[in-house]
UniProtKB/TrEMBL annotation, chain C:
Record keywords, A-Z: Cell membrane, Membrane, Transmembrane, Transmembrane helix
Localization (cell): Cell membrane
The name this protein goes by in its record: Na+/H+ antiporter subunit C
PANTHER family, per database record: ANTIPORTER SUBUNIT MNHC2-RELATED
Main location group: membrane
InterPro entries: CPA3_antiporter_subunitC, NUOK/Mnh_C1-like
Family to which this protein belongs: Belongs to the CPA3 antiporters (TC 2.A.63) subunit C family.
Keyword Lipid metabolism recorded: no
Topology of the protein relative to the lipid bilayer: Multi-pass membrane protein
Keyword Protein transport: no
TM ranges: 12-31, 40-58, 70-91
């Protein structure tokens, strides 16, 4: 028995059970949240070479599951986020008022998203990744549709195009190399036309899914309009799978092909995303739109890190910075969307100007929003600070002052728009506010935001965890002999 | 087959695709799309990929075609005829240049790869251990069973996603009646449905059974079952069930759940989806039969769409 | 009958090229069509083109690789699942728009 299979099988079991239980399925999260958190912890503590072939079928035919540092951290964060969002959704309905279909289908969709994300983080198989990508996209679009159907339809169409671009790339890889396994491709890849075309197509498709500027257009309307628990899952998890697959492609399967120029393009887009997302966030007058544009900016940091990882002599710090940025954003952004959802319920309207009086009415929720903001701005101590500090160090070491400047400027801009929203909560209320607080409702965002802060104290341990079986650390993984 | 035949087939594929994509009228577009799908099926036959040919004709042309026809009919009832709309010339020219450049690059990439059946050499020696003959079934349900397991949940998830769209006040309810509004047509479909449903069931069961050794399998068979169910529903032979019926839920979950259970039982034998020595064929057959039933029901309901407030007609209902 | 073209172009490559053109045609239609149902149809044509590339490049002289065949079947099933969801969303969107219209102004049209 191994957490590598259970982390996928348990949410799938929950999805099937949820369909059989119907309306009673919501209670399932009380069981699933602690169980999945336990499995994710178990995974984090496995020996560094933890891996196995599904069905014991060897490569190049079979599918290899593997727990590297990225997978361990992403799965742990996913378990914490979905667990907390799920518990929150027990008391704070995730559906539009009166939509019984949404209330019931929310749960199987959440478990589908959970299984798909975990499966995607664990597998090294590019086609298997396509299936997991579709599991996540399907669940994500359906969750987005619970808010705005028009935004979800737009998201769906663009995501479909991204999937097809990725699939076409995989098709070329299958034909060219007779395998789709990342670890084998690392040994086989050659910089010929078909391979370059395949990598370009897969990258383009995944950048759409990860919503990197300028392919981000679908994200703000979809994430801003969805019900808060759905928004939290979309921003925290759905965009991360595309990022992780890109990490697998660029640093593990094809590092020999991805030239410095291409890496600078990704880094440049990342830097542009940080600036553009931040400026757009500053211009929003609706709270959830601000939080959604902040995701566009935060995704930018992930790709700004690409040239820093590739350019470092010892990539450990930049690698950890990139990975921890993903984890810190997952925790902080989920917390922020949940808190924002509660605040908007109590507020006079959905604009930032309507938040007056909330700091007095629901101080714990506003605190959760504030703690999440601290991590997103990159202030110490927080996971966001650790991540951005590691990236900043790497940038300065390499003389990449432009990236260093963007890292600092991005933090300042985030401070401007997030403090703006917080300050609005302290403004006097025009009419008395009825707080929406209590129990799991408030505890979930507070716990997630707290974790984002606590991450800042676990620096060394987290950096070491992220380095497990990292591609730059040499072949830590002893692979089963490929079939002749 | 001669090269001339291949060439003519390819030109016909491109022609039907072109019409399907650019003809003004939506119904004509869908009709040509179905023709296109069937020609694609023929192509797969020519490529000696009979399993894919069956899947393409049944699912790619058949189910997708019916889905599009039904969607178009429902749009038309709302006054939306889904015709091509004119886009600005600059956009068309820009898109044309971009797509042409893209096709040239893609074609060059494709031509740089020699067509080879490389992994057939890896698959062939593993087949005797499974006890089945059909190599594609071997890949789908043994070597890459993990893909197929996840995919069965994608299909289930798609139905959940469709259900999530049910308008306020419609849940739990039945999908809109896909029935013929025209009385004589409904009688024809009714008689046809009564005849077809048992035939479809038998044929589908055979397709599953054949899938171990001959072309066929759970997905192709499931589509045949779905087709039978839909025709029967159109003629009023059977009614589409309410989405909260326990029996329906069980039928939907059965296949994926059994697949998952067998996969988890494999942990006792060494790991997820490990089939114990000598039991591979039996387990594959169990998975395929249960999966085919669930796929059939899921596909039929996917085509039918989300529940509607009044079970009788697809009304443009008020929103909540 | 045999054409000279067959000496330089194998059947596998011919079908793969057809697949490439299908991808391009579908992409062009996806960009230039406004109606979501027509875009959905275009996406399916692109998908069919990709499957054709995948399958035909596995066509060896005496066998067709079962591995890409299985991937194509998986791909076809995923595609129909997504198409069904997309079609349902398109219809629902039209329904909500049609329902909102007579409420806003009183000239209800076409909606039965």
């Amino acid at each position: 028995m191994s957490p590598l299979d259970l982390l996928v099988a348990v949410p799938l079991c929950c999805m099937a059970a949820a369909l059989l239980l119907g309306r009673a399925a919501r209670g399932l999260i009380l069981l699933a949240a602690p169980l999945m958190a336990g499995l994710a912890l178990w995974l984090a503590l496995l020996p560094p070479d933890a891996a196995y072939l599904v069905g014991q079928w060897e490569l190049p035919l079979g599918i290899l599951l593997r727990a590297d540092g990225v997978a361990r951290l992403m799965i742990l964060a996913t378990a914490l986020v979905i667990g907390a969002v799920g518990l929150h959704a027990l008391v704070e309905p995730p559906e539009k008022p009166g939509h019984a279909a949404q209330a019931e289908t929310f749960w199987p969709l959440v478990y589908l998203l959970w299984a798909g994300a975990n499966a995607g983080f664990l597998t090294t198989d590019l086609f298997n990744l396509y299936v997991t990508l579709e599991m996540v996209s399907l669940a994500a679009v359906a969750l987005a549709a619970m808010g705005s159907l028009a935004a979800a339809l737009r998201y769906f169409m663009i995501a479909l195009l991204g999937s097809l671009a990725y699939l076409l790339g995989v098709a070329l890889i299958v034909a060219r190399y007779d395998t789709v396994d990342v670890t084998l491709l690392a040994q086989l890849a050659e910089p010929d036309l078909a391979t370059l075309m395949a990598l370009g197509l897969m990258t383009a498709g995944l950048l759409i899914k990860a919503a990197l500027f300028p392919m981000h257009g679908w994200l703000p309307p979809a994430h801003a309009a969805a019900p808060a628990p759905a928004s939290a899952l979309l921003s925290a998890i759905a965009v991360k799978l595309g990022f992780v697959i890109l990490v697998r492609l660029w640093f593990e399967a094809f590092p020999a092909i991805t030239g410095p120029a291409a890496l600078q393009v990704l880094g440049g887009l990342g830097a542009a995303a940080v600036l553009y997302g931040s400026v757009q966030a500053m211009r929003q007058d609706r709270l959830k739109a601000l939080v959604a544009y902040s995701t566009v900016a935060q995704v930018g940091y992930l790709f700004l890190a690409f040239p820093l990882v590739a350019g470092a002599i010892d990539p450990g710090d930049a690698w950890a910075g990139m990975t921890l940025q993903a984890v810190a954003h997952m925790l902080a952004k989920a917390a922020m969307f949940l808190a924002a959802g509660l605040m908007l319920k109590a507020a006079a309207g959905e604009r930032i100007a309507d938040l007056g009086g909330l700091a007095q009415a629901m101080p714990l929720t506003v605190t959760a929003f504030g703690l999440a903001a601290v991590s997103l701005m990159g202030l110490p101590p927080s996971g966001g600070f650790t991540a951005k500090f590691l990236l900043l160090t790497a940038a300065i070491e390499q003389g990449a002052y432009l990236y260093a400047g963007v890292l600092i400027l991005g933090g300042l801009l985030a401070a401007v728009y997030l403090f703006g929203a917080l300050a609005a909560c302290f403004a006097p209320a025009t009419t008395p506010r009825t707080p929406v607080t209590g129990g799991l409702r408030t505890a979930a965002p507070l716990a997630l935001a707290g974790l984002a802060i606590v991450m800042g104290f676990g620096g060394t341990a987290l950096v070491e965890l992220s380095a497990i079986a990292a591609p730059w650390a040499g072949p830590a993984l002893i692979l089963p002999e490929p079939a002749p | 087959m001669t090269f001339a035949f291949d060439l003519i087939l390819c030109l016909m594929i491109l022609g039907t695709a072109g019409i399907a994509l650019f003809v003004r009228d939506a119904l004509a577009a869908i009709a040509f799309f179905i023709a296109f799908g069937n020609l694609m099926g023929l192509t797969w036959l020519g490529l000696d990929a009979v399993n894919v040919a069956l899947a393409e004709i049944a699912i790619g042309a058949g189910v997708t075609g019916v889905l599009l026809i039904l969607a178009r009919a429902r749009l038309l009832a709302l006054g939306d005829d889904a015709t091509c709309s004119g886009t600005p010339l600059w956009l068309r020219l820009g898109a044309l240049a971009a797509c042409a450049g893209f096709v040239v690059l893609l074609a060059a990439s494709v031509l740089s790869i020699p067509p080879e059946s490389g992994l057939d050499r890896v698959v062939a020696p593993l087949m005797p251990g499974l006890g089945i003959e059909n190599r594609v079934t071997g890949v789908l349900l043994a070597f890459r069973a993990y893909d197929t397991l996840l995919e069965s949940f994608v299909l289930l998830g798609a139905l959940v996603a469709v259900w999530s769209l049910a308008p306020a006040g419609a849940w739990p309810g039945r999908p809109a009646d896909p029935g013929m509004t025209d009385a004589p047509m409904r009688r024809v479909a009714g008689t046809f449905g009564q005849l077809l449903l048992p035939v479809a069931l038998v044929m589908a069961a055979y397709l599953v059974w054949a899938g171990s050794d001959l072309p066929g399998g759970a997905f192709q068979a499931g589509t045949v079952l779905a087709g039978g169910l839909l025709v029967a529903a159109m003629g009023g032979t059977i009614g589409l069930p309410s989405s909260d019926r326990p029996l329906l839920r069980a039928a939907l979950v059965l296949g994926p759940a059994v697949f998952l259970a067998i996969g988890l039982a494999g942990i006792a034998a060494g790991g997820l989806l490990v089939y114990p020595e000598g039991m591979a064929k039996a387990l594959i057959v169990i998975i395929e039969y249960t999966l085919f039933l669930s796929i059939g029901v899921t596909l039929a309901l996917l085509v039918a769409g989300p529940p509607v407030p009044d079970a009788s007609h697809p009304n443009p209902e008020g929103k909540g | 009958m045999d054409l000279p073209l067959s000496d330089i172009l194998s059947a596998g490559h011919l079908y793969a090229l057809t697949g490439a053109v299908l991808v391009g045609l579908g992409l062009y239609a996806f960009i230039t069509q406004r109606h979501p149902l027509r875009q959905l149809l275009a996406v399916n044509v692109v998908g069919a083109g990709i499957f054709l590339i995948l399958g035909s490049l596995g066509r060896g002289p005496d066998a067709t690789d079962p591995f890409p065949q299985a991937l194509v079947i998986t791909g076809i099933v995923v595609a129909v699942a997504l198409t069904a969801f997309g079609a349902a969303m398109i219809v629902r969107q039209a329904e909500t728009r049609a329902a909102a219209k007579p409420a806003a102004d009183d000239n209800a049209r076409g909606a039965s």
